[in-house]
Amino acid sequence: MAHTLAAQSVFLVSPIKPFFWILLVLGWAYLAAIIDKDASKHYFNKTLWNGALLGTGLTAMLVMLFVPVFIVGFLLALVIVAGGFFAYHSFRNTQVPPKDKWDLTFNRVRDAIDERAYAAAQENASIKLLNKDTSPIDVPVGDDPAVPAFEAFENAMNFLLQRGGEKLELHITSEKTLFQAFVDGMAFDLPALDTPTGMALVDYLKAKTGMDPADRRKKQSAMLLIDAGELGRHNLALMTIGSTRELRLRIAMDPGKQTVRPIEQLGLLPQQVQQLEPIFGDHTQVVVVACPPGHGQTTTLYSFLKKHDPYMLSIFTLEEEVAFEMEGVSHELIASAADGATVAKTLASVIRRDPQVVMLDSLTDAQVARTAASSVDHTRLYVGMNAPDTFAALKTWAKSVGDLSIAGSSLRAIVSPRLLRRLCPTCRVPYSVDEAALKKLNLPPSRVKQLFQHSGQVMVRNKPEQCPTCSGIGYKGRFGVFEIMVLDDQARAFLAQGKLDPLRSHLRKNKMLWLQEAALARVVEGATSIAEIKRVLGGK
């Protein structure tokens, strides 16, 4: 008896042993709570099992108190508590369906870890793919081969969204994989992907959008909705096409959010708006919109269409792909592989319906030009053309029509847009230009005190940091500059005679501005920079 009391005294005064006693009690209580809840769920004899668990708990505590060697007593108590739990576990697994059995092996621990990793991946993903009903699509985790592909997609989308970009392009060949983001028309190289990761990204996005991952050659398109958290929800237009040598993926941002702009918002100078306004008052002759690809041709064509009331007039478009759905306008598609004869036949068919306005998105060949030129007595045609400026477009039009007199009489105007990046208003930097340089640019020194250039940095506590508005690019958004050639009777007479130099002089007398002059006017305003003009228009 004296020995037992001494053991109790040593146990009570020990600073560590009561901790293990409390730990054992808490562990027993936790297991008892689990078993009590589980027994109720499966309608087991709760009284029996609670009594048994209470007995094992009391037995374990007495063993810890009365076994003289503490570590031996603790281990025996632990075995007693665990034995009660395993007894319930063995009984339980004989009573429940296989799918409800408890698994106490390492697989259960591993599954729990995997579940937490899965939940964390879904929660922490900055870009989430959504189904058509806006429910989230699972983010790949673990050893799924799509994990590095999704990470590359996530990083690329974050880069694009933070900078207000317009598209991503992935180009895969046997030699390399090129991944680029396009922001305001400029390509930015993203971190390089190896070919397997690039292919996995294409296959992953195809599978999630209902395309066929197995068919890598056929052109396939789909829409995808994403949730980018604070950066909002966005619609992506995906297009893939391949061959024996390459595979391409294009992801366009929010194509449905593009809107038709009034011509006053295109970037035209006030005097250019005045030159164009009379053109929209009649419904005859051809107006050509000419520029290199990606410089606002489609937007300009649709803005011109918007000057005509679709509820008062019959308006048609002939396009390979409808860029803007305009209410009241009849949109007709032209197959991408259609030859000139087919396009000309389609145009002639539309003209026979006696429309007032027709827009043709691209002048494909001479046969189409001749059909257009012969159809302008009662119809206004807006025609897209790939040409660097108005005079190049004029020469192409005249050559395609084949008769200078008909080419001139059928032509009302040529408009040549180019897109320039707008200087970031937060970080643009003013600088002074000497008089000699201004005179070389044909700018009046008395009226130009300073110009601006891009920076990409702002000063924070006297230290340069990346500009938060433009993400360090120095530009934010784009606007158009235009060269506008309006033909009057005298200009058509010069064209009919093939006298281009007198035509040029005549147009200058009528205050026609060259592209460079229109662009420099926007430089003086501080909207863009000399460097941007050189990049887009070329020259020194």
The span between the termini is: 107 Å
| CATH H-level superfamily of the largest domain | P-loop containing nucleotide triphosphate hydrolases
Secondary structure class reads alpha/beta
Average pLDDT for all residues: 88
Q: What's the main sheet like?
A: 7 strands, antiparallel
Shape: elongated
CATH architecture of the largest domain: 3-Layer(aba) Sandwich
Overall radius of gyration? 37 Å
Say how many strands there are.
18
Strand content: 15-25%
How many helices? The count is 18
- When the domains are counted, the total is 3
CATH topology of the largest domain: Rossmann fold
- How are the strands ordered across the major sheet? 1-5-6-7-2-3-4
pLDDT < 50 stretches: 1-7
Helix % is 40-55%
CATH class category of the largest domain: Alpha Beta
Describe the protein in words:
- By secondary structure, the chain is an alpha/beta fold.
- It folds into three domains: 99 residues, no CATH class; 130 residues, Beta-Lactamase, CATH 3.30.450; 195 residues, P-loop containing nucleotide triphosphate hydrolases (Rossmann fold, 3-Layer(aba) Sandwich).
- The protein is 42% helix and 20% strand.
- The strands form four sheets. Strands 1-5-6-7-2-3-4 form a seven-stranded antiparallel sheet, covered by helices on one side. Strands 10-9-11-12-8-13-18 form a seven-stranded mixed sheet, with helices on both faces.
- Helix 11 crosses helix 12.
- The longest helix has 25 residues.
- The chain is elongated.
- It starts with a helix and ends with a helix.
- 31% of the residues are buried.
- The N terminus is likely disordered.
